[in-house]
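FAQ

Q: What does a record look like?
A: Structure on top, sequence underneath. For example:
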């Protein structure tokens, strides 16, 4: 669909990302497969391609300029959001997509193979059962910020960053609980064509 390609190209430009035509095509192929598999696997509640492009793909693209470098773990990745999107845009970065839902991980394995994404490692497990550490740990639509920090902290390498994608900014109560141990930076995201608020909360441990 030329419309989707145009919307994506414009968003990439607005976000200041440098993505090749091939990378943009790959993002659209991912979206196409997501909506196709969705019928059987129930991967997303959004079925309209334009809406899914904006609320899933472009939403995830908006965090890329703000991500620190290094190996990445995406907790509760679902259909690979943002892990697969980041992997397509940053082929040099190793991205681990973790979810306890076997069907969703099966989809990521299949799509990674089809799109030739050798830098994605899909793992079907609960975070508590996963042992490796990473320089960046992301989550999108994860429970509360404090819950995310609690499960993500053991997986974070020294000097690493936790990056939580959020709609609204966390409450003062949530932040106060975390401020004792964490340096917290709230980044307001301007997601092209999305009229809802989006934030990226970046946390680094104070004792590192």
């Amino acid at each position: 669909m030329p419309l989707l390609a145009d919307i994506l190209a414009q968003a990439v430009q607005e976000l200041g990302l440098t993505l090749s035509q091939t990378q943009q095509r790959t993002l659209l192929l991912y979206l196409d497969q997501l909506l196709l598999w969705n019928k059987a696997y129930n991967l997303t509640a959004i079925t309209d391609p334009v809406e899914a492009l904006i609320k899933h793909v472009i939403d995830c693209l908006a965090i890329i300029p703000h991500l620190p470098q290094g190996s990445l773990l995406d907790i509760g990745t679902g259909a690979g959001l943002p892990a697969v999107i980041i992997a397509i845009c940053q082929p040099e970065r190793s991205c681990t997509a973790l979810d306890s839902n076997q069907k969703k991980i099966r989809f990521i394995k299949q799509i990674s193979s089809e799109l030739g994404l050798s830098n994605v490692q899909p793992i079907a497990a609960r975070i508590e059962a996963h042992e490796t550490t990473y320089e960046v740990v992301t989550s999108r639509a994860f429970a509360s910020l404090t819950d995310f920090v609690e499960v993500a902290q053991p997986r974070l390498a020294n000097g690493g960053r936790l990056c939580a994608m959020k709609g609204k900014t966390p409450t003062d109560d949530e932040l106060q609980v975390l401020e004792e141990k964490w340096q917290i930076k709230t980044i307001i995201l301007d997601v092209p064509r999305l009229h809802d608020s989006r934030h990226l909360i970046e946390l680094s441990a104070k004792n590192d």
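Q: Is there anything notable about this one?
A: Residues 78 and 153 are 20 Å apart (CA to CA).
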